[in-house]
Amino acid sequence: MVPSSNISADWQPPTGFVPVDSKIPGIQVYAPAPVVEKVPEEQTFTCPNCGATTAFDPDAASVTCSHCGYVQKLHADVVGEAAPAAEFTVSTLQGQQRGWGQERRELHCNSCGADLSIEANDLSTTCPFCASNQVINRATQKEGVRPGFLIPFKIDRTACVQNARAWLGRGWMYPSDLSGVGQQINFQGIYLPFWTFSAQISAKWEAEVGYERTERYYDAGSKSWQTRTVIDWRWQSGQVEVPIRDLLGMGAKNISPHILAQIEPYDLSSLTAYDPGFLAGWKAKSYDIPLQPAWDAARVEMREHARDACMEDIPTHHVRNFSMSADFNDESWRLILLPVYLATYQFAQKTYQVMVNGQTGSVAGQKPVAWWKVWLAIAALLIPGAVIGLIGLPFVMLGGAGVIPVVVGIFLFIVGLVISGIILNKAMHAGQG
Fold first, then answer.
1. What angle do CA 116, 61, 275 make, to 5 degrees?
2. In principle, which of 146, 152, 191, 265 could form an S-S bond with 284, CB 3.0–4.6 Å?
3. Which of 21, 69, 409, 79 is nearest to 275 (CA)?
């Protein structure tokens, strides 16, 4: 600190120091200048041979030109689950690089509100999330934290369509001509944002734990000695260490978490250092769930893991008045991109969504239901039991041997009712994915 009145006209601060705000009038404060990381210039991906637009090819694992066959290898390291994580500090978040590292534009959907990063020359006119054509191709409005790692696409579009057709044709309760729709679906490869969280949790638990023991007692009704099981309750406590590694947290709002959960897991051992070349020819979704809300949701899930670990630490299954405290240590995060093929299709004037894991080829999504098949199956399950029961009922009323058919009929009807409930529940959720 230097009083302003004592500073001579030719005085200069030490090298590497700059003036900062002072809370004391008349006092000039100097501090070390912040280190400014040099951000590499944005890259463009055009073919050096013919000038055509290049794209990342999952088969070649390189940026290729479909016009002249030029191939550009990407020199990104596969770091896997050992990828460096960032601490939960303001300076760490502010020090992250921004943007995609290449010239891109933004596709904004006026219908669902989704923002999608596209290449500068991409002429997309349809939102891949809701199939609306009310989209605006505009300059990127806000550049968020740059992803540090990603899993490149491993499945090409041809294999994606084949997997989707096989999935659409699978199952008896769907329309017979549904598999033919798969060839017409336009799948769009999109890198979706995810936060990964790691922490070391020290969980302490306390509860009343019950231990079973067998005791003999005299039953006055039967005038004999019997045995019974009683539970002795006593307070106990314990502590468990729960390491959480790479818990995935959603980074995008416009994605169905239910469908996405069905195409997981991803093999994070294939995590690769981010390079803009992987996005050449592909779309990418910016995160619209910030770090803090994603971390809050992850902490809730981590606490459930810690609670399960505490319950496993208790030697019996008789537990009451359970309580737990959890301390989080070594908390860290990463922002990564995971590959997904996304498509919407129409069937009987309704819109459905399908997702394909761009790494493994797993498929999940929404399907229309042929309800006449469902009701026919339910009828086939319930009618036999009802008929057998009704046949035996008159014999029971006449005092004959109709009890057995009635019992069998009731049993078959109940079994059919349970299976019908399962089928009906599956059919009702098919349209939701």
1. 50
2. 191
3. 79
- Distance of alpha carbon 272 from alpha carbon 359, whole angstroms: 13
pLDDT digits (tens, 9 = 90+) for 186-220: 888 999 999 999 999 999 999 999 999 999 988 88
* Residue 72 phi, psi (nearest 5): -120, 115
Answer whether 112's CB lies under 8 Å from 132's CB: yes
Cis peptide leading into residue 84 (ω within 30°): no
CB environment 190-206: b (16+ within 10 A), e (fewer): bbbbbbbbbbebebebe
Q: Which conformational region is residue 330 in: left (phi greater than 0), alpha (psi within -120 to 50 degrees), or beta?
A: left
Residue-averaged pLDDT of the chain: 82
What tens digit of pLDDT does each residue of 1-56 get? 555 555 555 667 777 677 777 667 767 777 776 654 444 444 555 666 666 666 77
Q: Phi and psi of 394, rounded to 5°? A: -60, -35
The overall pTM is greater than 0.90? no
99: helix, strand or coil: coil
